[in-house]
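Recall the central idea of this unit: under ordinary conditions, the amino acid sequence of a chain determines the structure it adopts. In this exercise we apply that idea directly, starting from the sequence alone.
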Amino acid sequence: MSKKGGLLGVVLLSVSVFFIVQNTLGAGEPTFHLALPFGLNEKAFYVPPDNPMTQEKIELGRVLFFDKRLSKDNTISCSTCHIPSLGFTDGQPVSTGIRRLQGGRSAPTAINRAFSKVQFWDGRAATLEAQSVGPFASPVEHGFVDYSEMLAKMNKIEGYKTEFKKVFGTEITLEGVGKAIASFQRTIVSGNSPFDRFEVGKDEKAISEPAKRGLALFRGKARCAICHSGFNFTDESFHNLGVGWDGATVDVGRYAITNNTKDIGAFKTPTLREIANTAPYMHDGRLATLEEVVDYYNKGGVKNPFLDPAIAPLNLNGQEKQDLVAFLETLNGEGWQQIRRPESFPE
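Accordingly, the structure predicted from this sequence is:
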């Protein structure tokens, strides 16, 4: 890798997010503690004991995240579906992989995934490390037949062999790929939103009067906080909202993983942070705007035998729906906007 794009040449910095060096690995490379934007819960920030964050590992993960050579035909990278300028989504109803093949689900934002262990809409990945490598062996995403094919391709790039030896002290491994990309993804955070400054900072002027009314609705009449709870606005659980039950086929969601009938049609509750920047919405991207989302919930979803009990008509009037959207727009924050594509890649 060139000096310009070297692994030690980049440290992610912004007004609200930076790295503090801590010598906790003895003679090894020092770990990094991510100082989180205002309003986020540091105790909930999960880093596995076997994958401490380091500067070199994070930078290797950034390079891997953006490198299109990590697809069968050199057209797809992680950043294809998780575009920084679109809040680490792709702005499409469902994601598009190699040869313009489309999956059946929307690409969820990569923002604030460090606050969750279980990943994907159906929770099939138990860790962020597992999620980070999952798409590589998908025939409609990165397109490799299996991980062995991907690793064989990576081993033809001498620069990656050098960097893995430097970061992990090993040859290129699937475990190392997952650990590096997950470490990078943990730096993609959002906080210090107008809501945080209002709620935690007690700044009454941080949000508008309609947004304040919307917050009251969010916690009360609209019942949003039943599922979108806590500082990250998600209960990290799975719910059937009726999405897709008005069509010819139904995505069974979580049920495909658990085989538990209560999980039929259930999908993971997404964070609402940066929600105004991460359209379209729902697991299949069918709703284009926040107004459409509010209308969907206001009607009580689509009835089906497995509909979550919390989903019922809300009887919100026009002004209340506008106020609720005004509140949701206060959840846009900062901490992720500084991330950029590397200027060069290992050769």
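The first strand starts at residue 18 and ends at 22.
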